[in-house]
Specification:
With about 160 residues, this protein is of the alpha/beta class. It has a single domain (about 1-160), classed as Immunoglobulin-like (Sandwich). The chain contains two helices and eight strands. It has helices at about 1-20, 90-105, and strands at about 45-50, 60-65, 70-75, 85, 120, 130-135, 140-145, 155-160. The longest helix has 21 residues, at about 1-20. The radius of gyration is 16 Å and the shape is globular.
Length: about 160
């Protein structure tokens, strides 16, 4: 099933790349094109949880540095809560955010009071709920995204690649 999701993601990305090419590379919404920098138009990314598994349905997303990004997160679980948090830093910072989130609790979206290492955060999504967060993509690099609901971080993570 994991391969099916990857193939679908590749098919969507290929279709999107062809549509962007056909448009002449102007200011287009919906594209995750590489190398566009701040001149790239806004993009909407869609990601979800994998049913009752503690996993995101996409473990890699790509945007351009400076691009306005709206991330739409669909919690496909019927019973579990999830969120989507973009981390500034690496594994150590992600673990610290997740650990501090446990004591912060659901009222604080399972996030620490000190959000200096958080680039973007979705609201906490209940079962079968869709939430959004809009942010400006950071400088080029690879960034972790995680779920900070207690016990989810070790399994629910992925990478945002910023070109």
């Amino acid at each position: 099933m994991k391969i099916w999701f990857r193939l679908m993601a590749l098919a969507v990305l290929a279709a999107l790349a062809m549509a962007l090419t056909a448009c002449g590379g102007g200011s287009s919404s919906g594209g995750g094109s590489a190398g566009g920098g701040a001149s790239s138009g806004p993009v909407t990314l869609e990601i979800g949880s994998k049913g009752e598994e503690l996993a995101f349905d996409k473990t890699e997303l790509t945007v351009a540095a400076g691009q306005q990004v709206t991330l739409r997160f669909k919690n496909n679980s019927a019973v579990q809560q999830h969120n989507w948090i973009l981390v500034r830093g690496g594994d150590a910072e992600a673990a610290a955010i997740a650990n501090a989130g446990m004591s912060a609790g659901p009222a604080a979206n399972y996030l620490p009071a000190d959000k200096s290492n958080i680039i973007a955060e979705s609201p906490l999504a209940n079962g079968n709920e869709t939430v959004e967060v809009t942010f400006t993509a950071p400088a080029a690099g690879t960034y972790l995204y995680i779920c900070t609901v207690p016990g989810h971080y070790p399994l629910m993570q992925g990478k945002l690649i910023v070109n």
